[in-house]
Design the sequence.
């Protein structure tokens, strides 16, 4: 499907950037810090959410940043929120589009049970109140990848409200101090994803792919309880781990399954909140913190220079390293919300309120879903600390790397080595190698079994610790060989036979008489 | 044969008096002869003949699918029909061929029904005359009836004869005309504010609007989702019940349909109405109501009373707010529902390609008529953040009051309400177009739209001919999901009044055999 080029699309607007003036990024302007950040050299006060800006002659002037997040997580489900089309990443364009997804007239939405269950489970894991009655609304706007001209969402009465997300930040010189913070969750709502627009500048066309149109999303709204990019990024990471543990979303940012919009403002503590901007489409874990910090920096700089912050939508340009305005201000949207008349209220039950004789296929029991809640990341980390004597900060690293926990557990299963030893090897050597080669855990040439075997050799003192490192390096290069094979090929065994050792020593002395003599 | 009812012709098919193909060909030839009425937008001749052929095979093998097998039907052109153009009488959907069947269409086809074609309507069903579609207005067959012509001899002949034709009412005027001219035995209409009942009344046929949620809307191109219901137009109440029996029930593709299983309907023949309580809403006695219709209405009430039914005056106090409230809710949903017609995925697309926005604007300007655009504009106004509370929310509250009015009346022991369907009989087209669509809709939906706001079943039954020789219909309104009870009462009433069949022989001499007078008994009711 193709449409003429969208007027004022982001690419075309790059020429008219109202970006940060260079000064702010080179030391003159506001310094930026955050209560949890210790790594940033310019950071001011470690424990205070205050940002100090030096204004020549005027002394210190403190700024506080306020960050709230809207996170869209694609629900992991076989079919879309209101239609039977399959959900799949990177399928050929427009190959997963039902009549409803293409908004053919006369088609009606039919709610996907799995998506509702995923929303309830996510709500429970985030300590939300689950609304036993929630409603669907239409949010109207014209855009080429929104075929119906409206998105079905939950504006008035969402499925879950008033939860909280706990996340931990590591502070201190060696980042060894773990501090737990809480961001309140305003609500979780079910809504439809849009399609994708691909702008072909050359032919001045917009190409539309509706594969994503109608995929179920969980919109998680975090209250403005964060104060810097790192906090926001850490909160997002924690949410991501929770969603993955629940299986309610794959939450893979690279595949667009987790998308973040941030509401950002700055103010002087004790004064009313400042005008906020919305930075849209923070779709890369790498740039999330940077984008937020750069916007905070920009706002402070604007205010310091006597300019105003406009209530506008911006996007982060990762090449420029700053945010840029996105939409025309004149086109301020009125979404003309209206109840979705084709969907009756969504009713949920608990065991107490379950109508007698209800068809289990027709009702959703919140208590049943609560029973099915898996272990959450915070519990897993606690378990690692308790069971293996792991340091809390190490438990974070183990969970934060995709697949590392499973790798760790598999090694533990197969080795007699001390858990602390395993942790140390995995965090220092294994992870180090992965980072160095820019590999993910599941791309590692070293299998858990191989590492377990290596650690066993070390544990029964068959090899020395320096030989172990040599074997480990060899494992990396020669895929398929076992540690024992490498040890014997390279003759790295420690010699246990005293007589043989004696013979070796004598032979060395005989071969090097001068050295022997001088040493004596 | 064509003048028979669905039930009668179904029996004839079963007994082999006629074959489905013969029946289909007769209807097709009549469709051609009545083409000037403009009842059909698309005549699906090939498809119909093929379906008839298949039906014939089944009959030969003795494997008939039931009462509808081989029965010619017509479908309003706002129901999606797989492989058959579905236009909504709009430039926007000219050439649009849906890839799927509406559930109601599929159900009819599954029963062996033969689809003759798609019938004319007001653009996107927005109107009460069937005059505002892009394919031109539908002409009321009664304009050419012996009954009407005799009464209006002095002006019917002469040079302006052709401009004196009457409107069918709407928006399902094509379906009503198709049934009234015997080109099919049942037709689907849609009813949002009276669009099935109004033309039924003007064309002298039965027009039934089922309870909201009883019949699937999947595939019906929406006007107002919360009020739309597929309607059934037939020549008698029994036929409407047969069709309803085929259509009713839960549809997994329409979440607003009832979950409870619906059993097939067979209407009993009432002999005793003494246990019935008929309510006459006093608010429906408006100054605009023609004295003739009013007198037929009270005669009908007297008829019930004389047969032993309890007839009482009841009050629906919020009736006067209904039409305004309907306007706000209708246009708001229209604004939303029409948003999808942007020229991208299907339908009309303009030649402008400066930008997507310019393309949208020109496409919608070219695609929709003034009525549709006007409703979109008002609807968007009502939905604006600043207006939402004052208009949409208020209208929703009033809607609840109106629905409660009915609930209260039914809770007080009333079984069925009896009201006029329209203010007067059909008017000439020239007369009708003196007022704009909005004014006409407000007048013509006055007795019908409150039922849609409350989701109740209602049926218009032809009662008698007016002094001008034109049909007049009365409306029965039932409790929600008591459709069967409602139709049972309507059937009893129908039997009492013996409404005459339209006589079109003068016009179509060669079809005279078609219009054998089977029921033309007396107009003794008047």
Sequence:
């Amino acid at each position: 499907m193709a449409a003429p080029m969208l007027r004022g699309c982001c690419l075309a607007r790059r020429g008219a950037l109202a970006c940060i003036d260079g000064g702010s990024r080179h030391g003159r302007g506001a310094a930026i810090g955050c209560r949890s950040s210790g790594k940033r050299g310019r950071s001011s006060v470690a424990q205070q959410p205050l940002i100090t800006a030096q204004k020549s002659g005027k002394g210190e002037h403190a700024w506080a940043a306020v960050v709230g997040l809207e996170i869209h997580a694609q629900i992991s489900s076989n079919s879309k929120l209101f239609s039977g089309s399959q959900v799949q990443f990177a399928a050929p364009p427009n190959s997963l589009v039902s009549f409803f997804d293409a908004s053919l007239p006369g088609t009606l939405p039919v709610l996907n049970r799995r998506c509702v269950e995923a929303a309830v489970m996510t709500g429970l894991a985030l300590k939300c109140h689950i609304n036993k009655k929630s409603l669907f609304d239409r949010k109207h706007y014209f855009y080429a990848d929104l075929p119906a001209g409206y998105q079905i969402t939950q504006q008035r009465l969402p499925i879950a409200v008033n939860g909280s997300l706990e996340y931990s930040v590591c502070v201190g010189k060696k980042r060894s101090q773990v501090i737990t913070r809480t961001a309140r969750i305003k609500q979780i709502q079910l809504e439809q994803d849009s399609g994708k627009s691909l702008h072909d500048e050359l032919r001045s066309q917009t190409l539309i792919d509706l594969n994503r149109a109608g995929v179920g999303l969980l919109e998680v709204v975090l209250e403005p309880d964060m104060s810097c990019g790192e906090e926001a990024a850490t909160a997002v990471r924690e949410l991501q781990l929770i969603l993955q543990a629940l299986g309610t979303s794959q939450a893979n940012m690279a595949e667009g399954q987790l998308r973040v919009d941030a509401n950002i403002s700055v103010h002087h503590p004790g004064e009313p909140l400042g005008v906020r901007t919305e930075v849209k489409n923070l779709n890369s874990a790498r740039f999330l913190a940077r984008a937020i910090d750069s916007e905070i920096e920009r706002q402070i700089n604007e205010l310091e220079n006597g300019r105003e912050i406009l209530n506008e939508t911006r996007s982060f340009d990762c090449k420029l390293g700053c945010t840029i305005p996105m939409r025309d201000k004149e086109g301020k949207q009125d979404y003309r919300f209206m109840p979705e008349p084709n969907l009756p209220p969504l009713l949920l039950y608990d065991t107490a309120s379950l109508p007698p004789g209800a068809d289990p296929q027709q009702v959703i029991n919140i208590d049943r879903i609560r029973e099915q809640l898996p272990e959450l990341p915070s519990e897993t980390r606690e378990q690692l600390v308790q069971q293996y004597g792991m340091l809390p900060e190490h438990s974070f690293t183990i969970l934060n790397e995709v697949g590392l926990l499973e790798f760790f557990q598999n090694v533990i299963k197969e080795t007699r080595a001390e858990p602390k030893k395993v942790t140390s090897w995995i965090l220092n050597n294994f992870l180090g190698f992965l980072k160095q080669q820019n590999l993910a855990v599941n791309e590692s040439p070293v299998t858990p079994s191989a590492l377990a075997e290596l650690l066993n050799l070390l544990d029964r003192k068959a090899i020395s610790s320096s030989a172990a490192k040599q074997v480990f390096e060899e494992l990396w290069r020669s895929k398929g060989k076992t540690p024992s094979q490498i040890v014997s090929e390279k003759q790295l065994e420690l010699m246990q036979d005293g007589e043989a050792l004696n013979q070796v020593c004598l032979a060395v002395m005989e071969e090097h008489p001068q050295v022997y003599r001088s040493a004596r | 044969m064509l003048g028979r009812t669905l039930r009668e012709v179904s029996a004839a098919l079963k007994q082999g008096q006629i074959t489905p193909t013969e029946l289909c060909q007769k209807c097709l030839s009549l469709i051609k002869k009545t083409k000037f009425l403009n009842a059909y937008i698309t005549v699906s001749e090939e498809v119909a003949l093929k379906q008839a052929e298949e039906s014939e095979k089944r009959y030969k093998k003795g494997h008939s699918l039931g009462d509808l097998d081989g029965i010619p039907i017509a479908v309003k052109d706002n129901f999606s029909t797989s492989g058959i153009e579905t236009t909504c009488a709009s430039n926007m959907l000219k050439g649009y061929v849906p890839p799927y069947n509406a559930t109601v269409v599929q159900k009819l086809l599954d029963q062996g029904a033969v689809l003759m074609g798609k019938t004319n309507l007001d653009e996107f069903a927005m109107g009460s005359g069937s005059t505002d579609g892009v394919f031109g207005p539908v002409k009321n067959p009664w304009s050419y009836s012996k009954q009407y012509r005799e009464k209006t001899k002095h002006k019917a002949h002469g040079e302006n004869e052709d401009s004196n034709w009457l409107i069918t009412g709407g928006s399902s005027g094509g379906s009503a005309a198709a049934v009234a001219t015997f080109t099919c035995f049942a037709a689907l209409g849609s009813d949002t504010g009276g669009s099935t009942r109004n033309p039924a009344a003007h064309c002298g046929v039965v027009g039934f609007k089922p309870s909201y949620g009883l019949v699937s809307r999947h595939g019906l191109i929406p006007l107002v989702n919360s009020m739309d219901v597929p309607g059934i137009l037939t020549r008698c109440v029994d036929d409407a019940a047969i069709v309803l029996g085929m259509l009713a029930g839960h549809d997994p593709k329409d979440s607003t349909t009832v979950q409870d299983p619906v059993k097939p309907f067979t209407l009993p023949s009432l002999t005793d109405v003494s246990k019935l309580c008929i309510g006459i809403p006093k608010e429906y006695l408006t100054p605009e109501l023609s004295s003739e219709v009013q007198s037929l209405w009270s005669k009908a009430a007297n008829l019930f009373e004389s047969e032993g039914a309890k007839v009482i005056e009841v009050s629906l106090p919020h009736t006067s707010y209904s039409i305004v409230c309907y306007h706000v809710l209708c246009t708001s949903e229209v604004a939303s529902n029409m948003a999808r017609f942007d020229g991208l995925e299907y339908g009309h697309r303009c030649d402008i390609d400066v930008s997507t926005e310019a393309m949208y604007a020109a496409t919608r300007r070219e695609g929709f008529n003034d009525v549709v655009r006007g409703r979109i504009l008002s609807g968007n106004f009502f939905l604006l953040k600043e207006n939402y509370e004052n208009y949409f929310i208020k209208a929703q509250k009033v809607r609840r009051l109106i629905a409660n009015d009915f609930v209260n009346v039914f809770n007080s022991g009333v079984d069925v309400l009896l009201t006029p369907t329209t203010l007067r009989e059909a008017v000439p087209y020239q007369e009708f177009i003196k007022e704009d669509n909005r004014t006409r809709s407000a007048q013509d939906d006055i007795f019908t739209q409150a039922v849609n706001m409350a989701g109740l079943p209602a049926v218009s039954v032809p009662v008698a001919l007016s002094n001008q020789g034109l049909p007049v219909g009365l409306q029965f309104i039932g409790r929600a999901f008591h459709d069967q009870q409602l139709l049972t009462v309507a059937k009893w009433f129908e039997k009492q009044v013996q409404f005459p069949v339209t006589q079109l022989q003068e016009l179509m001499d060669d079809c005279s055999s078609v219009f054998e007078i089977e029921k033309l008994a007396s107009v003794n009711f008047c």
